[in-house]
Structure prediction request, 423 residues.
Amino acid sequence: MKILLVNTFDKGGAANSCVRLHNELLINNNSSLLLKNKTNHVPSSFTYYKNLPKTSRLIKIKNKLKKIISNFFFSEKEQNKKMVLKNRSSGLDYFSFPETNYDITKTDLYKSADIINLHWVADFLDWKTFFKKNTKPVVWTLHDENPYLGGEHYNEKYFGIDDGGLPIERVYSDFEKKEISRQLNYKKEILKNISNIHIVSPSLWLLNSSKNSELFSKYPHYYIPYGYPVGIFKPYNKSLCREILDIPIDKRVILFVSDSIKNSRKGFGYLKKAFENISNEYKNDLFLCAVGSNLEVNLNENIIELGRINDEKLMAMVYSASDLFVIPSLYDNLPNTMIESLLCGTPVIGFNIGGIPDVVIDQTTGYLCPEISVQSLKETIEKFLINPDIFDREKIAAISKSKYASNIQAKNYIELYQRILNK
Prediction:
């Protein structure tokens, strides 16, 4: 069985999940990974252009001329894309289009594969070309809502926080509504007669959202959570980790991880305000540890900024050094950081949204906030600070390992691939 995984990048949250699956599949299977952009040395991974069949110089020149002519005639479409992005509010999540200049079916990897597993393929998969030419069964692993939405990657109903610390309901402009509808209709037309797609979701929330979507409701759905290298993400000695990372030994440390705090969906504004309003009896002994680039948290002396961390073992030490991991996301699938923290034995606090309640077992592996608000988050953090020893870190790690080990995920995927191919 020759498996082809397809992803736009080899770094980032969705990419990490795809690469981890690919690495596990490689142990006993013929797995290849096709990428648009390659920056890491992932075994058996290939970029699109390097995997195209060799063509003569004349054919290459003809293809280049076709592209130039195509761009000229479709300049109106390109202008529309620019208008969409220009009119989109800063802080909203990514917006992508189902039309690209890439034809995955031309690659040697596609031609030799038995089954295609699409992952996060925004700005890479050209819907029209791929589904018109594809003759192979497709498994589509969802990492966000984009495949069944009209351009957006999350259906963000909230945008911003009001003075009372509550989410502000988002107002869509007529331009946004029109463009989202146009893209959704475009996708519907392409998939009208397509039946050989199988949808996999890592979270129950995304599974149900996809099942109930206008675009994907007709396809079979499967629930397979992400898998993690449990030999790396495991509990390490807290005191030793703090000494190595230069984190105060005698303080309570709350961890926050994000590539950017500018993304409204990640909810950092809620955590910042909650942290600022923590009762004085806890404040002097409390630190916020932030991991990521360009965070600019500005909480005076109560902040430890570790910057971007790419090494998984070092990141596991950060989780182990922390008393609590807070994920204030307003919309999310199955955040890697949340499960990585639990595998290291560190309890998690988050809002009761997306895939977070799949993982956070209230009072066992962490706490779920009763509502999305600054006050609710503050009170839940204080609930932890009142009795932080209520959580058994070894038990948290054991529960998580039994569900999210990478070999469990790979086994479920292999069984699914074989079942589809046997049909």
Observations:
- The chain has two domains: 2-227+406-422, 238-404.
